[in-house]
Amino acid sequence: MHSSHASLRSFFIEGPAGPLEALLNHGAPGATHSAVVCHPHPLFGGTMHTKAVFHTMKALHSFGFPVLRFNFRGVGLSRGEHDRGRGEADDVRAAVDWLDAEFHLPTVFAGFSFGSAVGLRACAHDPRVPALIAVGFPAAPFTGPDEEPRTYDTEFLRDSTKPKLFISGDRDQYGPKDKLEELVAGLPEPKKLVLIAGGDHFFEGRLREMREAIEAWVRETLHK
Predict the structure, then answer these.
(1) Can you give the pTM of this predicted structure?
(2) For residues 164 and 132, is the Cβ–Cβ distance under 8 A?
């Protein structure tokens, strides 16, 4: 296993709305894949330092993958303004572009909550991305009093034959079990839904179980 703190690089990648603040956990020599991990909703405090994002990074980095995290436009030191998921999908594409140019490896996509919704849209049909991981997918997202109703369309996944992992807490208030089961049931194989017992949306007290579930899926899917 590789330390997630080894060779941590802080820098900026060029995004469509300006520079995006990024962190790269360098991979091991001979890495088979790179990975990108996207953070939850910017208007509710989501950043690349959110605990579930960090633990998702650790799971992927344990295989020696170089793992990129970044702040969406308007978050932290990233330029631009929040764009209700539209521009953020372009931010994800810019991150995949950077990884592809830097490492020339297939890129595993992973995202948490809002990051999973916009990143799946960006990566589902990108031939450079062979596997998709949605952590805490917001099947029933919270809508604040000043927001227009928010839903995350998943029709674009209905013809995706890439390996897909959905992992949520079975007490996730924004991803009810029945809605997730219905969503995943309508998707083509290969696919897997993992529900972490006792886990809420942020996996409080269940981050280790979440990380282990990701590691197990990567082993069986990418490291056969």
Answers:
(1) 0.94
(2) yes
